[in-house]
Amino acid sequence: MEDHVYKKIEITGTSTESSDQAIRNAIAKVAKTVREIRWFEVAELRGDVDGGNVAHWQATVRIGFRLED
């Protein structure tokens, strides 16, 4: 097994649908420019409330990826 080096970045995705979709939006955006994504972890979850209902989800995620040789 080879040894690898990894890096983590932190970004915030948003969605009017769900927290799950906010996470997916964040990962999809990063995947357009970052290769070798290996994992994510949810660092923070929050949202906007309008009229007693959740109007907007915000998910801050840490995304780990392997650095290329």
From TrEMBL:
**Source species, domain of life:** Bacteria
Q: Which Gene3D superfamilies match?
A: Flavin-binding protein dodecin (3.30.1660.10)
InterPro entries from the xrefs?
Dodecin, Dodecin-like, Dodecin-like_sf, Dodecin_bact
Mind telling me what this protein is named? Dodecin
Q: Which organism does this record belong to?
A: Maioricimonas rarisocia
